[in-house]
Amino acid sequence: MTTPFSFSLHKTDGQARTGEITTSRGTIRTPAFMPVGTAGTVKAVQMRDVKATGADIILGNTYHLMLRPTAERVAKLGGLHRFSTWDGPILTDSGGFQVMSLAQMRKLTEKGVEFRSHIDGSKHMLTPERSIEIQCLLGADIQMQLDECPPFPITEEASLESLELSIRWARRSKQAFEEMAGPHQALYGIVQGSVFEDQRKRSAEALQEIGFPGYSVGGLAVGEGREQMFKVLDFTTPVLPTDKPRYLMGVGKPLDLVGAVERGIDMFDCVLPTRSGRHGQAWTWDGPINVKNAQFIEDESPLDPESDCPASRDYTKAYLNHLFRAGEYLGPMLLSWHNLDFYQKLMAAMRAAIAEGRFAQFAADFRARHREKS
After folding, report:
1. Least-confidence region, from 18-22, 115-119, 184-188
2. Where are the catalytic residues (predicted)?
3. Looking at the chain, which terminus has fewer C-beta neighbours within 10 angstroms, N or C?
4. How far apart are CA 312 and CA 109, in angstroms?
5. 93 among known catalytic residues
6. Across 46-50, 98-102, 212-216, least confident range
7. Is residue 289 part of a domain?
8. Residue 164: pLDDT above 50?
């Protein structure tokens, strides 16, 4: 018998929340950060090491996997969990953001988005129904409705038109999900509306009328800046159900995560930990550092001597500096592993602070210590 999807809220501290999402493939402790496995792999890090960092769930990408190796092939080979060797929960996005940002020659209609692949120029059509079909073929435990992610800045009129299309697509996505998915899987609706308060409220209310077991906040971290993003969350999370998980898509830096948790967000994903790692940037409790800098050439200290992560504890900054200067693959691998581990330790620290009723002090202390400079 498969375990149905459910969410339990354990403790609140101000707007910050901690709880658990139950799936048939395991429990997700919230607030949760999902490492991004775009093409069926978390870049430069083995799945066993991702698991060792404390990650409960990873993210896969519909757009990339539908193009290569194709969702049908992944299904034939046993599904994304077996294919990638990740046995925990997987969330897949709808592919909508990548179609808007990566694909070529896009044509948006009521039916969906017609586009050409950025890989080989082949022609494809992504509709709400096809997006759900792909996510079901992949075997995703948590799926996303197809939506349009509008650019920023955008006019109120254009944003509203996009928002209404996403609401109509949400209805079609849910209908397709009910026809194709298993009882253990879940579909999230995506709140849009750019930076406009009335539109965010309109989107949230419409999605709740349709009914979803979880709600995502989309259309942020697209250039509006941290202050504006927090302002949007300030008026968006209060109109979302308290008994359903809230997912802020594509965010972000550690200070973004802390500020969003303060505003009631439960789930996050972002490519930043591994992208930073590939470019020599290590995230630490005191902020990011660039190990390629000359100041670390003879620095014999590790990134975090108290960490239980080998990448953080066992290698000196001097050695990491050497790896990057020498162009050795091991450098990006170690920093990506370290960054993923740091992000999971940050989430664990926030969960503990909320549970113990000291989150406001934790957030203040973190902001005072953490400096975003390289």
Report:
1. 115-119
2. 93, 269
3. N
4. 48
5. yes
6. 98-102
7. yes
8. yes
Residue type for position 211: G
Binding-site residues sit at 93-97, 147, 192, 219
DSSP string, 298-341: T---BS-TT-S-HHHHSSBHHHHHHHHHTT-THHHHHHHHHHHH
Mean predicted lDDT score pLDDT of the chain: 97
Under DSSP, the state recorded for 57 is -
In a shared domain, residues 345 and 252: no
Q: Specify the 3-state DSSP secondary structure of 41.
A: coil
Go through the chain and tell me how many residues it has.
374
Tokens of 22: 């139950």
Give the separation between CA 58 and CA 28, rounded to whole angstroms: 10
Same domain, 231 and 96: yes
Q: Which of 249, 270, 291 is the last residue of a domain?
A: 270
**DSSP-derived secondary structure letter, 110:** S
Question: What's the number of domains the chain is made of?
Answer: 2
Residue after which a domain boundary falls, among 214, 241, 270: 270
Contact between 171 and 160 under an 8 Å Cβ cutoff? The reply is no
Which one-letter DSSP state was computed for residue 280? T
- Do 213 and 32 contact (CB within 8 A), yes or no? no
Helix and strand counts by DSSP (H, E) for the chain? 15, 16
Q: What is the pTM of this model?
A: 0.97
Residue 374 pLDDT level (bands cut at 50, 70, 90): very low
Q: Exactly one of 93, 141, 256, 266 is catalytic; which is it?
A: 93
